[in-house]
Automatic annotation (TrEMBL):
It comes from the Bacteria. Signal peptide: none annotated. Pfam families: GerE, Response_reg. Residues 150-215 form the HTH luxR-type domain. The gene is fixJ_2. Keywords: DNA-binding, Phosphoprotein, Transcription, Transcription regulation. Residues 20-134 form the Response regulatory domain. This is Oxygen response regulator transcription factor FixJ. The modification 4-aspartylphosphate is found at D69. The keyword DNA-binding applies. PANTHER family: DNA-BINDING TRANSCRIPTIONAL ACTIVATOR DEVR_DOSR. It comes from Viridibacterium curvum. InterPro entries: CheY-like_superfamily, Sig_transdc_resp-reg_C-effctor, Sig_transdc_resp-reg_receiver, Tscrpt_reg_LuxR_C, WH-like_DNA-bd_sf.
Amino acid sequence: MSLNPNHNPSQTAEAARSQLVHIIDDDDALRDSLVWLLESTGLKVASYPSAEAFLEIWTPQLSGCLVLDIRMPGMSGLELHEKLNAMHSTLPVIFITGHGDVPMAVTALKKGAFDFIEKPFHDQDMLNLIEQCLERDRLENANRRAGAEAQRRIEQLTPREHEVLDLIVAGRLNKQIADELGISIKTVEVHRARVMEKMQADSLAELVQSVLHARGETAGA
């Protein structure tokens, strides 16, 4: 999904500053080395020795991504991922795997994980994956903000403007809208103009995109 054309670059920068890379691994040495690597590139990092420790701090507002060991004592990385999915977490997840864990990692990809990386891995490969995850997270956050703003604007419409909006988005022409609602074409044009103004849309494409944002859909859905 493309970003709202009216998105604020300063909001994007603010979102980037609030992002955290969450490293969850029971291997102290690996966890510490990843923290050092990421902090040396200017990324903000938080680390946890277990899935349970991460769940203690998790909230739906968390921004960033997860670097998650697929096998851990207690709750495994896979189990944590499934639990986060059930809680509708949108944080992108990179699994760290051993060679024998690849089939499990493929299963995780099918359940929405971003990617996996096998040990031993090159630092730059990990950094590249993390930057891709953070970019996805920024886009998701921007789309959620755009959706919330579009929904707020939709709620300002009158019932009749709602009807006109739904028919516009469904691809109806003014004459078809007039026939369907039993009103004149001139009245449709007035309602249409008010809808465009209240939705702050300069074109039909922008209007449709705003409605898709509000519905949590993509342009290709």
